[in-house]
């Protein structure tokens, strides 16, 4: 499965060393919606990602890719320190050029 480069970076980045690289694939005004909260801008997204990695020590392995409504939807098996692990989640990405403009995880 060939993921677009910014999405590939999202799934291959490792915490904490890749925090800046992860933030760099998001547009400056990007938004991430996860666990009922919105995280706006690259610094907030970087902080959210690092905190989530530290809390859950999770890893997401993409298992499916589709396009719908102008979005790129990646289904991934997520394993980590959380109830119900492993779980299959959908990561719905909005892209503009080589940047992620929005991401909804659910």
UniProtKB/TrEMBL annotation:
<dbReference type="InterPro" id="IPR032710">
    <property type="entry name" value="NTF2-like_dom_sf"/>
</dbReference>
<protein>
    <submittedName>
        <fullName>Nuclear transport factor 2 family protein</fullName>
    </submittedName>
</protein>
<dbReference type="InterPro" id="IPR037401">
    <property type="entry name" value="SnoaL-like"/>
</dbReference>
<feature type="domain" description="SnoaL-like">
    <location>
        <begin position="8"/>
        <end position="89"/>
    </location>
</feature>
<dbReference type="Pfam" id="PF12680">
    <property type="entry name" value="SnoaL_2"/>
</dbReference>
């Amino acid at each position: 499965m060939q993921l677009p480069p910014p999405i590939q970076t999202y799934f291959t980045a490792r915490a904490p060393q890749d925090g800046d690289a992860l933030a760099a694939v998001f547009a400056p005004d990007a938004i991430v919606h996860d666990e009922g909260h919105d995280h706006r801008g690259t610094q907030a997204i970087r902080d959210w990602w690092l905190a989530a990695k530290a809390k859950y020590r999770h890893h997401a392995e993409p298992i499916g890719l589709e396009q719908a409504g102008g979005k790129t939807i990646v289904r991934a098996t997520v394993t980590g320190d959380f109830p119900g692990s492993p779980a299959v989640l959908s990561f719905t990405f909005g892209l503009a050029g080589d940047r992620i403009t929005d991401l909804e995880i659910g």
